[in-house]
Amino acid sequence: MTDVWLTIALLTVFSAVIRASGPVLLGGRDLGRTATGVIELLAPALLAALIVVQTVGGDDGLDVDERIAGVAAAGAVLTWRRNAMLWAIAVAALVTAGLRALL
Known about the structure:
Layout: H1 3-26, H2 33-56, H3 66-80, H4 85-102
Helix pairs in contact: 3-4
C-alpha cells in the first residue's frame, strides 16, 4: 500500500469517527437554545461565504469586476422583497451582462 492510499484510508477512518462522535456523545439530548441558534445560522453564513469566494475570488487573489455589481443588485432586490429570488437572479444577470457589454 502506497503512502497516498494509507493517507486516504486514515482520513476516511478519522472522518467517520469525527462524524459519529456528535450523535454518540449527545445521545437523545436536545441542544441548548444558544447552540441551536448558532447551528441555524451556519448554513446562511456558509452560503454567503461561498458566494463571496465565487464572486471575487480569482486565481491570484481578489478579482474585482462586474459580478460584484450583479451580486449587489441581487442583494438590493432581496432587501426590497425577501421572497423574490427569481427576480434577484434575473436582475443580477441583467446588471452583470449590461456592465460587461459597456466595458
